[in-house]
From TrEMBL:
One of its GO terms (cellular component) is peroxisomal matrix. This is Malate dehydrogenase. Residues 2-150 form the Lactate/malate dehydrogenase N-terminal domain. The active site is at residue 184. The keyword Oxidoreductase applies.
Length: 346
């Protein structure tokens, strides 16, 4: 019996993500929360002949707290794609003013109502919204760093697709052969070719300019979609796929299926000092930057361990330079997120 709650379920990501979750037979209850149209989306999905019972929760007005509490009660996994997306000309950081308080308030409700749930944060800027969530949970005394995940899977999905095109290999064969670490915006995104994998020799044959173009395309893949949608939002369908891919891993781990050890697992933006060996990684290789996306091994809906990229994936000198650049951007976003909560009343 697994209950999953989606906050922001009626949005561009929320709807297709909820559809994918409805198709997962492990989900027994799917609670869809949004400030608009949650009941409509729930009624629609509830006609699909899979086991999950779907309910929509929508507050009657701004003061109504019962909808969110009912949506979260007993939840094992909460996925959050709530908040505003970018328009052309904006950076993800420009979303902070609106999305920071949305995440703070939703996570405070999770901390009070479903403190044992695994939390997957999709809302941007991820580099800051995850530190916001951590700080809120700390303030409430219920922070379990093993259960807080910033969803960066879309960067891996893009890396697999774009590299597959470039080296003429099926993208489906690239899962685990290229990892993406760091954060989730522009030059904080660091794709790593896993040098032990069989693609390393093919990648080595790429020219410097082809390699650099590939890195840039992964780092700025989100902008490609924002530009093409021309004011109508950012990636939604590819994000729903990516968010589901990560959520499915959490659901599998809740069902007792271990993360595969034969390939490198997907990364997630996590609070490193909260997992064994994380503090050491941060101090030795990341100038004490505490939030960082690394490949994570899951067990029972939480992080069991992570793969240290510097030890297991043999980061090249070029990749180390990318990490160095990423750390600057991450540090300021993390500070911005944490101080926002420190100055807030929950
Ligand atoms: N992590 C990642 O890789 C990605 C993150 N995103 C981010 O995901 C977020 C959502 O994007 P879209 O679905 O395209 O936006 P959208 O505007 O289509 O949907 C957002 C939904 O959130 C709802 N919402 C707003 N405030 C809420 C609250 N307090 N409680 C519950 N629901 C609330 C809205 O009513 C709307 O239905 C954006 O911040 C976007 O930047 C987008 C793509 C990739
Ligand atoms: O670019 C955006 O604003 C949405 C996003 O995070 C992505 O597509 O990676």
């Amino acid at each position: 019996m697994v209950k999953v709650t989606v906050c922001g379920a009626a949005g561009g990501i929320g709807q297709p993500l909820s559809l994918l979750l409805k198709l997962n037979p492990q989900v027994s209850e799917l609670a869809l929360f949004d400030i608009v149209n949650a009941k409509g989306v729930a009624a629609d999905l509830s006609h699909i002949c899979t086991p999950a019972v779907v309910n929509g929760y929508q507050p009657a007005n701004k003061e109504d707290k019962t909808a969110i509490v009912d949506a979260l009660k007993g939840s094992d996994l909460v996925v959050i794609p709530a908040g505003v997306p970018r328009k052309p000309g904006m950076t993800r950081a420009d979303l902070f003013n609106i999305n920071a308080s949305i995440i703070r308030d939703l996570v405070a409700n999770i901390g009070r109502t479903a403190p044992n749930a695994a939390i997957l944060i999709i809302s941007n800027p991820v580099n800051a919204t995850v530190p916001i969530a951590a700080e809120v949970l700390k303030k409430l005394g219920v922070f379990n760093p093993r259960k807080l995940f910033g969803v960066t899977t879309l960067d891996s999905v893009r890396a697999e697709t774009f590299l597959g095109e470039l080296i003429d290999v099926a993208p489906t064969s690239l899962k685990g052969k290229i990892s993406v670490i760091g954060g989730h915006s522009g030059d904080t995104i660091v794709p790593l070719i896993n040098v032990n994998s069989d693609i390393a020799s093919k990648v080595n044959k790429l020219s410097k300019s082809q390699y650099e173009k590939f890195i840039n395309r992964v780092q700025f893949g989100g902008d490609e979609v924002v530009k093409a949608k021309n004011g109508a939002g950012s990636a939604t369908l590819s994000m729903a796929y990516a968010g589901y891919r990560f959520a499915e891993g959490v659901l599998d781990s809740l069902a007792g299926k271990p993360t595969s050890t034969t390939t490198v697992p997907d990364s997630s933006y996590i609070y490193l000092p909260g997992v064994p060996g994380g503090k050491e990684l941060a101090s030795k290789s990341l100038k004490n930057v505490d939030f960082f996306s690394v490949p994570v091994v899951l067990e029972n809906g939480q992080i069991k361990s992570f793969i240290n990229p510097f030890e297991s994936l043999k980061v090249t000198d070029d990749e180390k330079k990318l990490v160095e650049t990423a750390l600057g951007g991450l540090e300021s976003s993390i500070k911005q997120g944490s101080s926002f909560v420190q100055g807030s009343k929950l």
